[in-house]
Amino acid sequence: MKEIYKKSNILTDAITHYCPGCGHGIIHNLVCEVVEELGIMEKTIAIAPVGCAVLAYDYWKFDTTEAAHGRPLAVATGIKRARPELIVFTYQGDGDLAAIGTAETVHAANRGENVTVIFVNNGVYGMTGGQMAPTTLLSQKTATCINGRNAKRDGYPLKVSEMLAVLDGVCYIERTSVHNPGAVIKTKKAIKKAFQNQIEKKGFSMVEVISQCPTYWGLSPVEAVEKIEKDIIKKVPLGVIKDV
């Protein structure tokens, strides 16, 4: 039988802690595939945040360190400046990158730090119970807005990629998703480009990945990917937002 797919050699055999249908596992493997293809495993350093991805080091064979909630880009800046020959990336959720870590995100991008950011956006705080996040969409229901996000009361969803794209230090930003095979392929290409930019010393690159969270969306895994296709990406369109 012809082999059409196999797990990356850099992904461990650890049993996943993620909920059924979660997009994190897909993205974890894509990162491993890219690191393996680029031949950079021995010099790659990942920074994992507080959040659903806090145990990312269980799944990756390259070096991974943790950072306090919202501080991965501060840690990444220190590591990259101390060891510029290393390939440094952060793996952050929307609560981490776009809420408590907003300042670190904005200023690292504005300084043009030569790092890569994988921004996993599912629109909720997954680790702590499904509360409203900065990226929660209008009318989206969460544990802290049970009738849906209301602009008058809660403000508007934060469009992080568009916000960062105006900064001079930013080299590349693309929004992708992992809700179907075609989207997964595009996400891998974007992640690879973001790492290649760092290798070529081009500056700050970020890939925002729209990811499903069936548990806190209150949907089945199938319904969750359908929601991305029919609803979410119409409100936050996929594609390249900046490419210098």
What does this structure look like?
The protein is of the alpha/beta class. The chain has nine helices and nine strands. It has a seven-stranded mixed beta sheet with strand order 2-1-3-4-8-7-9, with helices on both faces. The protein starts with 23 loop residues before the first helix and ends with a strand. The model has no long low-confidence stretch (mean pLDDT 95).
Mean pLDDT rating: 95
- CATH topology, by name, is Rossmann fold
Shape: globular
The number of helical segments is: 9
Question: What order do the helices and strands follow?
Answer: HEEHEHHEEEHHEHEHHE
Helix content: 25-40%
Strand numbers in spatial order across the main sheet: 2-1-3-4-8-7-9
Q: Please indicate the count of domains.
A: 1
- Helix/sheet category: alpha/beta
Give the CATH architecture: 3-Layer(aba) Sandwich
Radius of gyration: 17 Å
Outline:
By secondary structure, the protein is an alpha/beta fold.
Tags for this entry?
two-stranded antiparallel sheet; alpha/beta; 9 strands; globular; Rossmann fold; 19% strand; seven-stranded mixed beta sheet; 244 residues; single chain; 9 helices
Task: Describe the protein's topology.
Elements lengths: L23 H15 L5 E5 L14 E4 L5 H11 L4 E7 H7 L1 H10 L4 E6 L2 E2 L5 E2 L18 H4 L5 H6 L4 E8 L3 H19 L4 E7 L3 H4 L3 H15 L3 E5 L1
Parallel strand pairs: 1-2, 1-3, 3-4, 4-8, 7-8
Antiparallel strand pairs: 5-6, 7-9
Helix pairs in contact: 1-7, 3-4
